[in-house]
Amino acid sequence: MKSIPISILLASVILGISFIVGCLLLSNQGRSSESTQAVEQAVPNNKKTLMTIQETAEYLSMTKEQVMDIIKAEQGSFSASGFFEGKMFPFIKVQDQFLVSRIELELWAQDASSSHRRYINGQMQ
Asked: Nearest to residue 74, comparing CAs of 123, 6, 24, 11?
């Protein structure tokens, strides 16, 4: 029986360890990409924190004009009386663009619907 040179034995052990480590890394990468895909499916791309008025209107199933009428009505009511009962429409204005917080918008919609607010012809009733 021939003896196996130590260099071949060492190379075989290193190759075997490398194969096992490579398999482990690939299996972990597969798991992380699966979890990334699961997160992407749970949070669609349209879940931006801030939305434009057009995106807000689409989100609320309204027109852009209706959304602007709500903002103007609430601002007018606040200006006239100096206070506003309930939650006001959540927007910020950056230069000439209105941006709306998605999270705050959902809270506003709950408050507005529970208090049965009415917006008619750009005014609150």
From this structure: 123
Is the CB of residue 53 less than 8 Å from the CB of residue 64? yes
Structure tokens at 121: 């012809």
Whole-number pLDDT of residue 39: 43
Q: Using the 8-state DSSP alphabet, how is residue 83 labeled? A: -
Burial 98-122 (b: 16+ CB within 10 A, else e): bbbbbebbeebeeebeeeebeeeee
Structure tokens at 24: 């482990």
User: Tokens 């009962």 appear where?
Assistant: 85
Q: How many CA atoms lie within 13 A of 117 on its CB side?
A: 21
Per-10-residue mean pLDDT of the chain, 125 residues long, equals 71 75 70 49 63 94 94 90 89 94 93 89 75
Question: What is the DSSP track for 40-81?
Answer: HHHS-TT--SEEEHHHHHHHHT--HHHHHHHHHHHHHHHHHH
What's the whole-model pTM score? 0.60
